[in-house]
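User: Need the bound-state model for arabino-flavin-adenine dinucleotide:
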Amino acid sequence: MRTKVVIIGSGPSGLLLGQLLTNAGIDNVILERVSRDYVLGRVRAGVLEEGMVSLIDRAGAGQRMHAEGLPHDGISLAFDGRDHRIDLHGLTDKRVLVYGQTEVTHDLMDKRDASGALSIYEAGSVTPHDFASDHPYVTYEKDGLTLRIDCDFIAGCDGYHGISRKSVPETAIQTFEKVYPFGWLGILADVPPVSHELIYANHPRGFALCSMRSQTRSRYYIQCALDEHIDDWSDERFYDELRRRLPAEHAEALITGPSFEKSIAPLRSFVAEPMRFGRLFLVGDAAHIVPPTGAKGLNLAASDVHYLFEGLLEYCNEGSAAGIDAYSGRALKRIWKAERFSWSMTMLLHRFPDTGEFGQKIQEAELDYLVHSTAASTALAENYVGLPY
Ligand code: FAS
Ligand code: PHB
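Assistant: Bound-state model below.
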């Protein structure tokens, strides 16, 4: 088999890139390690920047997103028993859309099915080859056979644990990492959200986040120790701890109900440089990870896709390599700004082992300054809604 672009991974990065290429008449094949149901079973991000919304529209997969997504004009920061609204739209003239990554993935899969583009699920031992040459190819195992796809480019959209970054010689890549000493214990429950907008709470007991997927489905998180086990957290224990970390008005208004998803996610900041190795490009979580405190992970994948798609389109249509040559540098400039923002929000809102009483007072003072300074609120808002591509 031969195609223009082999995309490794059928997550949001791979599906979005694949649809943009297909719509532009650039042949591509997606190779995914697990089943499509397994991909759809993952519960992850929930906040889309306008840039991602525009890309999903350009992919032709935005109908349900606009019908069911919730436009949000603000968020709240809760600390010292009170919450304070950050008027995202008033400060930046932009808003975010609350719409689950699972739904984005579903919509992109449906669009790809309708377009007839090829996705191969449960592809084993996917391996990129000869990407330092002008004749790369990818091998994979399916139904007991080892198969090969010759191509012009390989897009490594296979996430943090994928094969693409690991296929690059160690001497050709530099990584930067910070692992945080806590995780996020998250639940999904079909109960009305405690507030119509997201609440990010700083509390001496730890961070909490009140989010949602719809007007009837809530997504809640609390900071937890890395050695916590899901089995030790009944719904009742979770909700009690969440209430302790929220201002009284929200704690009293919290509507609880049985969770149908409960998981603990570790938090890390990670960047791999560069993001291009000959004919292989790293995209999304394959190249970078952010702590979800700034709602940037999924949205960074989108801007990577934008830069790479524009470069591949220019190469295929005009024969110019300028765009693909600039991909890594362009993507990394935006990635590091989002890494900074996500790190700063995590440092500001979480309880660290060495925070102590003085550190808690400093965090509360910084939050108090932030919510009462137009300049500081604007800086947070323009990062939260997404910096320009
Ligand atoms: P993904 O990891 O989504 O997709 C990679 C795909 O490649 C997967 O389907 C995988 O099966 C496949 N793959 C891996 N290895 C392969 C191989 N060898 N061969 C073939 N296929 C292979 N972001 C936010 O903005 N907000 C959040 O709240 C948030 N919460 C998160 C919670 C968790 C537990 C995790 C892990 C991430 C979270 N993120 C969040 C970040 C997340 O949303 C990512 O940014 C997003 O999934 C990135 O999409 P992809 O780059 O497509 O990577
Ligand atoms: C979510 O709804 O899952 C979510 C929202 C905002 C974040 C992180 C997660 O910053």
